[in-house]
Amino acid sequence: MKNIKIGIIIGSTREGRVSPQVGEWVKKEASRRNDAEYEILDVKDFNLPMLGETTEKEGITRWNKKLAEMDGFVFVAGEYNHSITASLKNALDLAKEPWNNKAAGIVSYGSVGGARAAEHLRGILGELQIADVRTHVALSMFTDFENWAVFKPNPLHLNNLNGMLDQLIRWTIALKTIR
Predict the structure, then answer these.
(1) Alpha carbon of 49 to those of 89, 114, 152: distances in Å?
(2) Per CATH, which fold does 5-176 belong to?
């Protein structure tokens, strides 16, 4: 299964963000499974311009090329104002074909586990022809983060993480046959 590549997308670029900690946790736990190659794709590393603001294409080209290498995705999505971050929405909008006919799982966080961000993200993923899996990890800023800054996940989240990854790998394998 090592020919399956899953990108773990860090969707926040904000100063003081906690998403890199969550992404590293996902990668560490996922890598123990031996069913795919997992790679963190931090939106911040690509210096993406806002859609329509510039003709500079270097970051957009690198982003699209990296996405095209992946077979599936795990989105680490923080909830901001009942939705996903502007940087994640922009990163989604700056690509089209590299998303098509791939699967995705969601790890969300926020005051109510990032549930509203996850639901908004699901609608966007559908439009981009990304099949999102049902099970998702919902992390609470109150119980899974110390002082809203240090990630300390409840071990019970491993059940949902592994369940989500089980579904993601099956869907990724299935969708790879139509690409």
Answers:
(1) 12, 25, 32
(2) Rossmann fold (3.40.50)
